[in-house]
From TrEMBL:
One of its GO terms (biological process) is protein targeting to lysosome. This is Scavenger receptor class B, member 2a. It is found in: Membrane. The keyword Flavoprotein does not apply.
Length: 507
């Protein structure tokens, strides 16, 4: 018969414990992730009745749009060859109301169609002045757009030059903030429209963008695959753009920036298609942050997004022509701006070649004020804070047929930059915290099982030690001592232990 010692019994119990608790806990961990995945499948999908559908159609947190202008202080000196000087004026702040319009399910309920409608209301208390009264001296964008459209024709350029002289349409103009943003009738455009009726006579940086949309988007609901939540299928009926010179540059990838799939990973790259830039950009993880007690991952555009073709060969397709290719940090978007020499960048040429900053007096790029970022809760993909910052510039250079440009060197001149910001409101943050609490309980359930197993193991060890102690005490209580050191022999009964006889009372 095999006799087990107490250490062997303990080892056997430990092995059984591992089988009973640790292995099922590993399976429970996988099951916990599966449950979390199922929760996201049920709650974070773009279908009627889901937890996020109503807030996706009409986001509750307030969105603010701030406009900053670069006021030109030495236009005459600049045209004579002096370095341009600008002074930043702003912000002019507007409350941005956005909602999804004409929402309808398509493709047998697997996708959803919507229009992103935006409207703006001016907030005087958050602004530096009155946009109807404050004047800004800046580049005459309509004039530069017309000059660039006719630069390849000597006769057309000569005619436009005569028109500009007669109309006193200079290379720089002074307009109110309201006019620059929401539009004004430009005399040169009116003259051009006389020969080309399709030309719009009103110009404004935000003209026709108040109460309008960017066209129809079709999104994946995420019901089939949570990774597709909010992903764009088509924009204006197109699966890809036609502005650029490569398939990569024309690709429509990712979301529109309003929704991201749950269960985000730090190693993944987030793609966002933005009609304002006429392209898809991407963001990468930067750091962990916390907003109103909610954990979040901060994603930002890396320098490679707007890097030159030498630094990032993928960006070669964004060159308008092989000869029209700017350096790092700027993107010429004239193909989608009716030929106007518009250049996009981050504010103050943040992340751009230093030559663009050095060419303008009055610029000072700073990460804190000019970086674009998204703070996303990794469990749900919900935006808890965001700042979208972009700058509008005009490419100024010598144009044949226009004598007023002969003294100019190629300059990317800043006109205005915007800061579109949002932060989760208190009511939404409380709802998100409750959802995260539930998900944490589900995902940590395996740890609870392991913890209970450890407690049971400790209780068993304590009971085992106590049992051994009690056994030792019992043996000590029943032990006898012999009278003599030498045991006595009984020829019939064998060895016996002699006890001390009881004392004789009579003796």
């Amino acid at each position: 018969m095999l006799i087990l010692s107490e250490p062997s019994v303990f080892c056997l119990f430990l092995c059984q414990y591992l089988k009973m608790f640790l292995l099922p806990a590993r399976a429970s961990l996988s099951a916990g992730n599966d449950v979390l995945f199922l929760m996201s499948q049920q709650e974070i999908v773009l279908v009627e009745g889901s937890r996020v559908f109503d807030s996706w159609k009409k986001p509750p947190p307030p969105v603010y749009m701030q406009f900053y202008f670069f006021n030109m202080t030495n236009p005459k000196e600049f045209l004579a060859g002096t370095k341009p000087e600008v002074k930043q004026i702003g912000p002019y702040t507007y409350r941005e109301y956005r909602y999804k319009d004409n929402v309808s399910m398509v493709a047998n309920g697997k996708m959803v169609s919507a229009y992103n409608t935006k409207s703006f209301v001016f907030l005087r208390e958050k602004s530096v002045g009155d946009p109807a009264e404050d004047n800004i001296t800046t580049v005459n964008i309509p004039a530069w757009a017309v000059m660039n459209n006719v630069k390849d024709s000597f006769w057309k350029a000569s005619m436009v030059s005569i028109w500009m002289n007669s109309l006193k349409s200079d290379l720089f103009t002074t307009r109110t903030v309201d006019e620059l943003l929401w539009g004004y009738k430009d005399p040169l455009l009116v003259r051009v429209a006389g020969t080309k009726p399709e030309v719009e006579t009103v110009f404004g940086l935000m003209y026709k963008k108040n109460g309008s949309n960017d066209g129809e988007f079709i999104y994946h609901t995420g019901e089939q695959n949570y990774m597709d939540y909010g992903r764009i299928e088509t924009w204006k009926g197109q699966r890809e753009l036609t502005f650029w010179r490569s398939n990569y540059s024309n690709s429509i990838v990712g979301s529109d920036g309003s929704a991201f799939h749950p269960l985000l990973d730090k190693d993944e790259r987030i793609h966002i298609f933005t009609p304002d830039l006429c392209r898809t950009i991407y963001m990468e993880f930067e750091k962990d942050v916390e907003v109103k007690g909610i954990p979040a991952y901060r994603f930002t555009p890396p320098p490679s997004v707007l890097a030159s073709k030498e630094e990032n060969p993928d960006n070669e397709g964004f060159c308008v022509t092989p000869k029209e290719c700017l350096g790092t940090g700027v993107l010429k978007v004239s193909p989608c701006r009716k030929g106007a020499p518009v250049v996009a960048s981050f504010p103050h040429f943040y992340l751009a070649d230093n030559k663009y900053v050095a060419a303008i007096e009055g610029l000072s790029p700073e990460r804190t004020h000019h970086q674009t970022f998204l703070d996303l809760n990794p469990t749900t993909g919900v935006i808890v804070r965001a700042h979208k910052r972009a700058q509008v510039n005009i490419l100024m250079q010598r144009i044949p047929g226009f004598p007023t440009t002969r003294s100019l060197n190629e300059t990317v001149f800043p006109v205005m930059f915007l800061n579109e910001s949002v932060e989760i409101d208190d009511a939404s943050s409380e709802r998100l915290k409750k959802l995260l609490l539930i998900s944490n309980l589900v995902s940590n359930f395996p740890l609870v099982i392991v913890g209970l197993g450890v407690i049971l193991l400790m209780v068993f060890v304590i009971l085992l030690c106590r049992a051994r102690k009690q056994k030792s005490s019992a043996e000590d209580d029943t032990a006898y001592s012999p009278v003599n050191d030498k045991e006595k022999e009984d020829p019939q009964n064998g060895t016996y232990i002699g006890l001390t006889p009881k004392a004789n009372v009579e003796a």
